Fold non-specific serine/threonine protein kinase.
Amino acid sequence: MERSSLEARQANNASPLPSPPTVQAPPSPRPPSETSSRQRGEDYVYFERSTEGFSSDAVARATATKLKMESFYKVSVDAAIERNKRRTELEQKLNAAPMPNEAKEREIRKYRKLESQHLRLRRTKISLNDFRTIKVIGKGAFGEVRLVQKTDTAKVYAMKTLQKAEMLKRDQLAHIRAERDLLAESTSPWVVQLFYSFQDPLYLYLIMEFLPGGDLMTMLMKYDVFSEDVTRFYMAECILAIEAVHDLGYIHRDIKPDNILIDKNGHLKLSDFGLSTGLHKTSDGDFYKRLLDQEKQRDPARNSVQVNPINLTMSREQIATWKANRRKLAYSTVGTPDYIAPEVFMLKGYGKECDWWSLGAIMFECLVGYAPFCSENPSDTYKKIIEWPHYLYFPEEVHISQEAEHLIRSMMTWAKDRMGAAQVKNHPFFFGADWNGLRYISPPFVPALSSITDTSYFPTDELGNVPDQLDGVEKVGSDKDLAFLGFTFKRFTGSGQG
């Protein structure tokens, strides 16, 4: 009773409520159809979605945000699926194994610890500031390769840098994405391992394992020729490396001695997938059209390479010139076409067979001392490869076994007649090869290293004075930068991330 009278007095003494302010009604939305009203309810409001009235800059920003959000959630969902898959595989393994519960609990705790490290690694932002340059060890058409050391762990890596603007200008985006995807997918011991990939407004960065033994080209320039036993070992390892790339669904397309690296134990690994492509792609020879453009720009007064009409080969002086220019050509934007298959130049479509032609050309150089179609300029090499039946010649002064010559000719032939991986491995030249134990065989050459940063097997003196800091290059616009979305990658090894 007292409570009711108190509430009444408070109500009488209270100020009257102000009248609500006048609010203009919003524009009437488009009325839904009678059918949709019945389906969605009478209170459903339909708005016409349109970008009319928005500036082009606002539309571009909205599109960029949408793409970035989609990429972020796709990566997150894929990571969650992979994590659940790993958990399921562990549970199946533990349930199938006869072990006590305590041992199973230890395995589960170990798994949880690794997953925690994995999640921490995914949250970590990797940038150029995390690495310090030790030395520039390579130079390519679109960037450099540097020996770097991670500042927090002191681990040593090879860092490949690529200029974004140059990649877009030369229409090489598909190739660098293929290289990044291939390296991210690969766990093969025959392919150089990628640990991180990231970017900034100017450059793309690939942080890969450092292989201190240099490359096969350096060895060929030093020793001139290999014996058949040494050649057999290196070709066998190259076969497994090429096979690993093909098994991932890619064609390398640029297999040459420069891209065959030697690890600290003397074994080979395949690198530089900048021209690689998926097996579904049948023709992409635009990169090589510049060789024809070179022909148009040449001095007409200059004669082409004079070919010996009897042996159809180059003179010793011309071979010496080719060897002297070999390294310079590797650093040029055109590169060296000496190992490219004819079908790639002819733009009529090609498959993984083109990589076996390249291996045949490398095997020829290992045994003879120079590439089969070497010339003083790329244009003449191009012509010789197109008309290869007239120019593939084995010099009489060089002794080559019948098995070796037959294998080379079986790889360096028209694509329809060319040997594949299984046929090459079963060739008499490789009789007795232990294909499953090659990495356990003592190699013919093991690099003598003084430290983990030893670069003595790299021709760094030929690079000239390259600054320790990356050059300030052209910056790409924010709209074009979207082309590199999803480039970031971090490999989880589960043993003290570097």
Remarks:
- The mean pLDDT is 77.
